[in-house]
Structure formats: C-alpha cells, structure tokens
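#lab-general

N.A. 3:47 PM
ok so I finally got the sequence cleaned up, no stray characters, all 295 residues accounted for. can someone with queue access submit it? mine expired

B.Y. 3:52 PM
send it over

N.A. 3:53 PM
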Amino acid sequence: MTGPSTAPLPRLRTETQSVRAAHSISVRTGRLTHRVRMLPGFLIVGAQRCGTTSMYRTLSQHPAILKPVLHKGIHYFDTGYDHGLGWYQGHFPLRAHAALVRRTSGEVPLTYESSPYYMFHPLAAQRISRDLPEVKLLVLVRDPVERAYSAHAHELGRGFETEPFERALELEDQRLAGEAERIVSQPGYLSHSHQHHAYLTRGIYADQLERLDKLFGQDRVHVVDSGRFFTDPEPVYDGVLEFLGLRHHGYPVFEQHNARPRSPMPETLRTTLGEHFLPSDERLTRWLGQPPSWR
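B.Y. 4:20 PM
back already:
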C-alpha cells in the first residue's frame, strides 16, 4: 500500500509562482504606462469588516464603474505611500478603455479601489486629499460591537492575532499606545498593532468621520449603514449612485462576502461593549440622517 500522493504540491507551488510573476509583470507594466491610466473618482475607505468587499463587488457590476487592474485594495495611502503616485496610478485602467466605456454606457466612467485601513490610518486622509483633490469617499459602518468581534476572528484567521477576544480587548490600549503618534512622526513606519489590533478604537466611527469632514467636507463623504445595505440594498444602492453622479442601469446582484462563522458573544460582554460605543453611535445620526440600525 502506498501513502497519499504528493503530486499536486509541486503543481500548486508552480501556480503560485506563476501568479506572483504575472502580478510583478502587471505592476511593472502599470508603472511604465501610468501617465495614460485613470486615477480614482472615488474610494471605499472603510470601515474594516463593515461590508466593504460586498459594496466593492456590487458597484463593480455598474457599466460605468471600472475596477482596478489587479485587486480591490491597493493600500497606497496607508502602507504603500513610499511607492509614489505613478506606481499607484499604474494599478488602474487605461484612459483609452475608459473612452470606450464612455461611448457604450453614455456616461463618464469612474474607477475606484477599496482599502479599509484608509479611514483609520492617521495620515491616509491627508494624503488622499493632497493627491486626489476631487475624489469622493464612501464609508460603511456597522454595529461596532459586531465589527470588533468580526475583526478579531478575521485577524485570528490571518495569523495576525493569537489572543482570545476578551484578552485582546484588555491588551488594546497597551498595544496601541503611541503607535498613531509614531506613524505621524515617522511616515514610513508600519505599525502591526495599529493595523491589526484596534478592535475597539476602529469602532469609534464618529471621530474618524470628523477627520474626513475637515479635509473633504460632508458633501464628498457618503456614509452607508451596512445593516441597511444587507437587509434592504436597493435604496442604499440608489443613494450611492446619486452620490457618485451615475445613472441607474438596473439593480445588480446583491451578495454578502467575507462573513466568518464564529461562536456567539457572551451577552454580558455585548452589553458592556454596547455601552462603550453608545456616545460615538449617537453622533452618527448626523452622517446617516437617522439613528444607526443597530440602535
């Protein structure tokens, strides 16, 4: 009797190498041709674990919205800013392709990307405002208690977290102490904990939205309650198209992506965290036009 075959492993390794080689070639090509490529008309900037992938894929079905060439999240304005704007522009479609889309759709096409760390990163908004002075920002918010729990499961699954949820919450202040200040004072510094361990801090949406408001104005920031997006997507989609100035071409397929199964949160902890987020949640009415769905 022979053991299990290991034949697929070399093939898998070859496929992975091929994907990386293709990615490298695409990036180099994009950099060389960046002057004839588009820049984003809008960005999905966050918040993390609030339905940004679902919104990205929903909008990608609109005939006048063009996806980036390689992947949805480029992370230029947070962790990749040292690459330069030419590198960033190289990730987007050619303007010649946009001209063709304009002829077929009858409207000016937009390209975009979705990097949910932009909203939270202390320098990203300022960089976006400077480099893309006309860009619009799309923000999704979710029950911050559920967001924190989902983010923890996400970081565990990616290997960026090793502590159980309640212990990670206890460690958060210690892990994040001085990290935002260090990012600001050393712009090339990448903080693992600031990006991956801010379970509670990222859920204080109002503070982050006020930072965006100061740089962009409320008319260039559109906030979506993801609870309403998932339960009643049509009016939410209508509002996003109005914000972007795009015509309606019928409703796309609405799907939820990146949901992770996890055990229920203890009710006592849920109540405690709900009280923690209440002051910030109450400030969201200004942005949503009504109290958030989870309240």
